[in-house]
Amino acid sequence: MRKQPPPRLIMWLVDGLDFRLIHHYLDAMPTVRQVMKEGFYGQVLPFISTWGNIDFMSLLCGAPPGAHYHVHRRDDLPPWCTAQPLWQSLAATGGKSALIDLPQSWPSGSALAEVA
Asked: What does the alpha-carbon distance between residue 102 and residue 109 come to, in Å, rounded to a whole number?
């Protein structure tokens, strides 16, 4: 019996892109159109913050800002910050990930520094 390939996940995050523009230019982006047709997509409403790019960090951890506290570069995260980034959770179960052009607001010294 052939082993099934593992499920795949692509997260395409574009900061500041109006969701209507994707639909307007969908004919010029056949790969994006195919992913939207065969997979899942949606619009994310942002957290309101003056502290930086917390929305990307919340998406990458799957947790709200209070659980990950990645609001700017910090190496001394408080003890209540238990949310791991998705690639660390995936690696803990034997999964693989690739990160391309991740925002620079992720804390230095984290697993990202080893990947990027």
From this structure: 15
